[in-house]
Amino acid sequence: MLVAVIAGSAIGYSLGTTLVDSFSGHRSPSLWSGRVPGIISVLAAVSMTYFFFTRERLAAEKATAEAAQRSAVEHQLRLLESQLEPHMLFNTLANLRVLITLDPPRAQAMLDRLIAYLRATLGASRSGTHTLRAEFDRLADYLALMQVRMGDRLRVQLDLPADLAVEPVPALLLQPLVENAIVHGLEPRVEGGQLQVRARREPGRLVLTVRDTGVGIDAVPAAASVATPPGHAGGLASGFGTQQVRERLAMLHGERASLRLEPAPDDAGGTLATVVLPLEA
Amino acid sequence: MPTALIAEDEPLLAAALRADLARLWPELDVQAVVGDGLSAVAQALQRRPQVCFFDIRMPGCSGLEAAQALAEDWPDGPPFPLLVFITAYDQYALQAFEAQAVDYLVKPVDNARLQACVQRLARRLALQQTAPEATSAGLDLALAQIRSLLGSGLPAAPTASRLEVIQAGVGNVVHMVPIDEVLYFEAADKYLRVVTAEREHLIRLSLRELLPQLDPARFWQVHRSVVVRASAIATAQRDESGKVILHLRGRPERLTASRLYAHLFKGM
User: Fold this and answer.
1) What is the mean pLDDT of chain B?
2) What residue in A sits closest to B151 (Cα-Cα)?
3) How far apart are CA B63 and CA B83, in angstroms?
4) Backbone region of residue B242 per phi and psi (left: phi > 0; alpha: psi in -120 to 50; beta: other values)
5) What percent of chain B is helix, strand and coil (3-state, nearest 5)?
6) Residue A184: φ, ψ to 5°
7) Does the beta-carbon distance from A190 to B107 stay under 8 Å?
8) Pick from A89, A98, A189: which is nearest to B59 by CB?
């Protein structure tokens, strides 16, 4: 840029003096012989360049900031959408509407679960941490709602050893994995199946597993390029869910935490999701 | 006595719909309540109800896919059932339903809405009784509606993502099959048969996943489980039931285009 400024002032000065000289008849000193006009010219060039340069840079910075803000807002929207899936909400309400006349106490219990679920999902709690006990309680709310909807097609087993109950975990970390297990594993299967959520201690780490006996990870379209129809229970949303979990783990613990998704290693089939977190001694 | 079939995977909602219908339409005989799309098709074909209530999201196959299968396999003669789709939330499908005359219900279903639906169904059934010629018109209308609903769910695929080569793995060898050598694709359980003039391959992909990646001008869906390269079809012959028999260039077997797609084959 410096070269351009110097070259620009030299060319500008020479062109200007030549042009003016040609009709004034006066002979101006060349850039190199008379110092003062030359310096004025260079100064003018430098300040104009500086002015335009700063303006450009400010505009570019503003554009970057706006883009970042836009993507943050989009991210928030998608997060909210993934947390409050309208299909789940309206189906739950439809069941609730039936239970109100059929079985009022059960309706009330279901409403309590829904309220707890909504409070947890809509609250900002997803950014903080809570105990593993609280994590399992929130999963139990969601699963109870799903059990009303799916009847005996959904069989649930939550397994939290008492000595791990007070361990802190990122709030609602397992929620997207449990939702995936249901929406992509068990719901598409005519017979339904089983869902197990377990916590166990290993030397120096906490291992959380979500396992379903659903259609299996294989049945999820292998070709990632295949577009999912809008509004369809699709790979996009599930990809977003697991990506969320991965990002949170990486942000909190870096390499020391991980999420693995794999076909369940026994005859019952389905999918196994394993989250590993470092356990403070 | 009017007859109906209910397909809804959530047991409470199925029972509630049945109870509400019993109250609002006492003459209606609900022949069966099923919880998945495949049973819905099987039961409907067996019992031939006059009205089908199909939930959109069901295990096995969706309500729309069930309607498609029903339209393709429905026997000649008995009137095609009146279809009512039920959905909890599906803004795209709803727009399609609005545009079409097919009735639909949104969960939770309120009484007034269900009552209006019942009245409309009863009127349509009465019309079928008094004007038998309305029956075949009814099938044509249903076919047009299902066709349009099936199309509305598909995303417009960007031409850039079109498949040019099918990669079919056998053991540790991958066969590269240029898309223009494919005569047709046929869905077979969890696989897709990819048939060329010389041989066939199996790939793990569903027709639903494949379709957006094909050029619709070159590859035509002719049945819920068959997609043919149009230029591979030698002749198309219409039979009396409205189906079309396709003879291929380079293969002895014949394919059947279902009623839903028979309209593709007309002389110019």
Assistant:
1) 88
2) A229
3) 10
4) left
5) 40, 30, 30
6) -100, -15
7) no
8) A189
